């Protein structure tokens, strides 16, 4: 049997959250790139400025998923 997180477990978030939709979308793109490889110096600095830290590969994958869901929910509320 495997243990799965319940819906009541807190969702880990980056230390800093993007302030607007443009920053949110850019963060998602950079996190997607980060989960695949090391980023170059300028992309790394940009990601750090957006979310407050340069994530591990595991953190990047998790945070991308969390931020993408937040973006989708925000878009659903607008419509």
What this model shows, in words?
The chain has one domain (21-78). It is built from three helices and no strands. Helices cover 59% and strands 0% of the residues. The chain has helices spanning 21-34, 41-51, 57-78. The protein has 79 residues and is mainly α. 18% of the residues are buried.
Question: Helix and strand layout, with pairings?
Answer:
Elements: H1 21-34, H2 41-51, H3 57-78
Helix pairs in contact: 1-2, 1-3
List keywords for this structure.
single chain; 79 residues; mainly alpha
What structural category arises from helix and sheet content? mainly alpha
Distance between the termini: 41 Å
**SSE run:** HHH
Strand content: under 5%
User: In angstroms, what is the radius of gyration?
Assistant: 13 Å
Main sheet overview: none
Number of strands: 0
- The average pLDDT score comes to 87
Q: Oligomerization state of this entry?
A: single chain
Count structural domains.
Answer: 1
Helix content: 55-70%
Q: Characterize the overall form.
A: globular
pLDDT < 50 runs, ≥5 residues = none
Q: Helix tally?
A: 3
């Amino acid at each position: 049997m495997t243990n799965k997180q319940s819906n009541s477990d807190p969702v880990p978030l980056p230390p800093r959250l993007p302030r607007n939709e443009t920053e949110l979308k850019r963060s998602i793109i950079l996190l997607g790139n980060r989960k695949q490889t090391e980023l170059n110096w300028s992309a790394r600095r940009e990601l750090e400025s957006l979310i407050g830290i340069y994530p591990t590969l595991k953190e990047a994958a998790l945070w991308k998923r969390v931020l993408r869901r937040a973006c989708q929910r925000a878009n659903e509320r607008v419509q």
